[in-house]
């Protein structure tokens, strides 16, 4: 039975996917005297280990639900400032979370309110404000996007010949539906290597959102097994790419111009919240102005790992059963 126990322990360990592991920017006024800012202060208990939920309001609720989130609004300028706190529309377009102009409203913005609405903050003062989202009982299923803005305007005066308006915000990703939250997932479907006309190299990943929630994709690339055993990186991805469910987009990793052509082993890690995916390929960078498609060496999802683990577990149980049957046969005494 010792052999059987060891095999069963191995099977259980194989069920764990081995690849898995696990805001808004302050605005500087035109006079250069400090920043204004807004920061989310809390996340839902079930999202405490989700990095996105500490930057943005990310949640899934049933129709008829009301939620509240606290944000901190700060005035780090040297002047007393009047603020306006309000929600406005947003959408995901061409791989980016796009803000609507001014106070343009959408359905989610109409459900959202902020209190207080017009606080006055002394220099280097901050306050807490409450964002309330009241979802109607008849709200249709789906994900919606908006922004909670903190805006401060400086009218023309003796110090400022021209008036300025500055605003910073916290994104809202709200999924509405009667059941559990749609899963978040994505796959890296293709990698290409290129050098632009000036010779700067980069790796471009094509990614498809295969889940039911929007994704904010970031990550890093490592190069190993290079010429003479060289390694390089990690190189961070460029601007985060945001994809709606079912959407495909490209995530770029800019590299240093001095990088040798190769060959290299390129290993890319992308993440959105708690979801991580990897892909690897052998790469030789092309001539300036050229692009080459790479053959993926690894691009496994959780499902792939579970399928492989289940197949291995089935094989382990088959061997274990054969050992038990054989042992019982050997223990039966021979009869005349």
Mean of pLDDT: 85
Number of helices: 3
State the distance separating the first and last CA atoms.
30 Å
The total domain count is 3
Which architecture name of the largest domain does CATH use?
Sandwich
Kindly provide the name of the CATH class of the largest domain: Mainly Beta
N to C succession of SSEs: HEEEEEHEEEEEEEEEEEEEEEH
* Residue fraction in strands: 35-45%
Q: Based on Cα principal axes, name the global outline.
A: globular
CATH level-3 fold name of the largest domain = Immunoglobulin-like
Unreliable stretches (pLDDT < 50, length at least 5) are 1-25, 27-32
Radius of gyration: 27 Å
The quaternary organization reads as: single chain
Describe the 3D structure.
- This protein starts with a helix and ends in a 5-residue tail after the last helix.
- The N terminus is likely disordered.
- The chain is built from three helices and 20 strands.
- Helix content is 14%, strand content 44%.
- β13 and β14 form a beta hairpin.
- It folds into three domains: 53 residues; 154 residues, Sandwich (Immunoglobulin-like), CATH 2.60.40; 114 residues, Immunoglobulin-like (Sandwich).
- With 336 residues, it is mainly β.
- α1 packs antiparallel against α3.
- Keywords: Membrane, Signal, Transmembrane, Transmembrane helix.
- This is Peptidase.
């Amino acid at each position: 039975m010792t052999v059987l126990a060891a095999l069963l322990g191995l099977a259980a360990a194989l069920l764990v996917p081995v690849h898995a592991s696990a805001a808004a920017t302050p605005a500087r006024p035109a006079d250069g005297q400090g920043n204004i800012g807004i920061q989310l202060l809390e996340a839902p208990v079930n999202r405490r280990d989700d990095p996105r939920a500490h930057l943005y309001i990310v949640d899934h609720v049933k129709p008829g639900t009301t939620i509240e989130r606290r944000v901190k609004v700060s005035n780090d300028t040297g002047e007393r400032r009047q603020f306006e706190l309000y929600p406005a529309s947003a959408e995901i377009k061409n791989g980016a979370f796009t803000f609507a102009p001014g106070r343009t409203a959408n359905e989610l913005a109409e459900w959202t309110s902020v209190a207080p609405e017009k606080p006055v903050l002394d220099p280097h003062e901050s306050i807490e404000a409450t964002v309330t989202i009241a979802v109607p009982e008849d709200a249709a299923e789906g994900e919606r996007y908006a922004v909670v803005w903190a805006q401060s305007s400086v009218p023309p005066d003796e110090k400022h010949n021209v008036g300025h308006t500055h605003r910073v915000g916290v994104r809202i990703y709200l999924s509405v539906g009667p059941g559990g939250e749609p899963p978040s997932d994505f796959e890296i479907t293709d990698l290409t290597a290129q050098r632009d006309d000036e010779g700067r190299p980069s790796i471009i990943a094509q990614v498809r959102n295969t889940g039911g929630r929007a994704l904010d994709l970031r990550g890093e690339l490592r190069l190993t097994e290079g010429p003479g055993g060289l390694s390089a990186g990690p190189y961070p991805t460029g601007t985060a790419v945001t994809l709606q469910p079912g959407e495909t987009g490209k995530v770029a990793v800019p590299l240093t111009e001095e990088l040798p052509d190769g060959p290299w082993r390129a290993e890319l890690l992308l993440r959105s919240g708690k979801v991580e995916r990897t892909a690897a390929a052998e790469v030789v960078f092309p001539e300036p102005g050229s692009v080459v498609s790479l053959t993926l060496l690894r691009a496994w999802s959780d499902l792939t790992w579970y399928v492989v683990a289940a197949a291995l577990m089935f094989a382990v149980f088959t061997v274990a059963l054969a050992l038990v049957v054989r042992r019982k046969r050997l223990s039966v005494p021979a009869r005349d």
